[in-house]
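pasting for the record
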Amino acid sequence: MSLAPILAASPATQIHIAAVTLAFAVGTWMLLRPKGTLLHKRLGRAFVVLMLTAAISSFWIRGNADGSLSWLHLLAVYVMIAAPAGLLLARAGRTRGHVMTMVGLYIGALWIAGAFTLLPGRLLHQAVFGS
């Protein structure tokens, strides 16, 4: 593993990776710890901010050879809608909808999308596995 590819990447990419990494850590903590506590609520807000940061920063990351947006940017649009919606669902006391939205974000936007970043030719593949 080498941080060199990440350190050589654009600031938008570095912000994106930092936000996703922190969101993954916070999200994992949130799934494993008691729900409804003050800490859960504060970390939940942090999770939403981190997910929005990751989604917004992704629009300055162009992985296609022609510099266009990829299909993964559709996920960023979904995150920009679902993350605040999950927060609003919690505030409205709609626990089931909140849980489904937030777990969906965690699995879909962090685990599944994260798996795609490890494909050969991608930056994180280079960082984790070498060239």
